[in-house]
Amino acid sequence: MRGKIMKVIQSPQNKQVKEWKKLATKKGRQKQKAYLLDGWHLVKEALAKSIIIKELLVTSDFKYLDELTSLNKDQHEIISISDEVAKVLSETPSPQGVFAVVALEPAAQPPLQGAWLMLDAVQDPGNIGTMVRTADAAGFTGVIFGDGTADIYQPKVVRAMQGSQFHISLLAGPLDEWVQKFSAQQVPVYGTELNPAARPYNKLGKHQNFALIMGNEGNGMSQQILKRTTANLYIPIIGHAESLNVAVAAGILMFQLKA
Amino acid sequence: MRGKIMKVIQSPQNKQVKEWKKLATKKGRQKQKAYLLDGWHLVKEALAKSIIIKELLVTSDFKYLDELTSLNKDQHEIISISDEVAKVLSETPSPQGVFAVVALEPAAQPPLQGAWLMLDAVQDPGNIGTMVRTADAAGFTGVIFGDGTADIYQPKVVRAMQGSQFHISLLAGPLDEWVQKFSAQQVPVYGTELNPAARPYNKLGKHQNFALIMGNEGNGMSQQILKRTTANLYIPIIGHAESLNVAVAAGILMFQLKA
């Protein structure tokens, strides 16, 4: 029976499709304790890891069904969906025809060592996902999503993370509490708000243990959190641009600071 | 008469609106020799600079009309448009109610000195615009859009550049020819394709004069151009991400290499 398709869903009006669609909202994800992976790259990585998969969805012309069934060692249910259903579920204009409904498990909190990125009310899901991906590439331990930041499992965040949620710790909560925890362990916390006391980002050397906070695209960091930082860093602008994109700035800072 | 609104256009079906809408396509921009600026930040900068403005468009509830008319020293025509027309012209879900139709003038080619970014078939307009903005911030002289790269004045590129087209030189053309020009002047050209001969990006020191090439998001750089580079650079990935977003990688490289 392994790898067999047991169920076929053709209509976007199907009750099950409506439940899957709710996974695009935070409320729906919390209620179902699951989120949706869209695309072969992500589904393949989930199958290769010990990720709890609730269902696998494939369209009839999905090219890698053999590879999927051979990777599906735990015999997760495979459901055949129509192209119309795939269109309804996907954020992309041309879906790849494969999805996984994946369990949202409470994140285990690792020790606050290594390098951490904290997001203070960052809005744009593409920026957020890109920062998680960059933190992963730079060898960071994790990313903490502060209040007012888009949800970790928002579809556009998931798309931009490109699987980095499987590689590093993703936590959420009020950042002032996290800053206190880092400070209590003598881990330096670097803010990124340009103010008269800010220090050029490339004069601090490399660090094993530190936390870096990136603020909101328009308004920067909250003043309350800023007060608690060890130091504030800035990237000197040489030309005439007013600012850097937050994900680009985060990339420059992470690769500069990480030992 | 200065600053007076002389014309009112209510219907998205209006012939003039259809012409403006064509500015979203490369063909339309080339035919009309113009492109569209969307939003107060960009329009204000165009008014402050010696940019040739053909028309200014404002909705009836545009908040900064007084400031716009006082900045409009050259008495460019101001046309009142309805909210429906603004919606049709804008790429954003909530347009700010101000646009400028700006002349596309042939770019003067500055001497090939300073730092240059070259884009080899980069696809995503958001990435492209962000790289132009970052090149501006890093003090680069200009950006060269190679063949296969999205057009300089594509609306989403313009939006992401955030006005940097007014600050640095933007050129276009076949990159192999540009690489030859740089090489003829002994300007080093750095490629960014991971291959056995690639060098870590942070071991080269800082440079006044150089060119940096970023490749296509999926396929990297063209082999033909790669052969002509002075050296190829890579950013070591420490974690488990497969790659960096191209705009993030460009930001890290530009700020690292620029003297």
UniProtKB/TrEMBL annotation, chains A, B:
Keyword rRNA processing attached: no
One cellular-component annotation, GO: cytoplasm
Domain RNA 2-O ribose methyltransferase substrate binding stretches: 36-108
Assigned keywords, A-Z: Methyltransferase, Transferase
Record flagged with keyword Transferase: yes
UniProt xrefs under SUPFAM superfamilies: alpha/beta knot, L30e-like
Pfam families reported in the protein's UniProt record: MRM3-like_sub_bind, SpoU_methylase
Record-linked InterPro entries: Alpha/beta_knot_MTases (IPR029028), MRM3-like_sub_bind (IPR053888), Ribosomal_eL30-like_sf (IPR029064), rRNA_Methyltransferase (IPR051259), SpoU_MeTrfase (IPR001537), SpoU_subst-bd (IPR013123), tRNA_m1G_MTases_N (IPR029026)
GO biological process, one term: methylation
GO MF annotations in UniProt: RNA binding; RNA methyltransferase activity
Family of the protein in this entry: Belongs to the class IV-like SAM-binding methyltransferase superfamily. RNA methyltransferase TrmH family.
Name under which the protein is recorded: 23S rRNA methyltransferase
Organism expressing this protein natively: Liquorilactobacillus capillatus DSM 19910
Organism ancestry: Bacteria, Bacillati, Bacillota, Bacilli, Lactobacillales
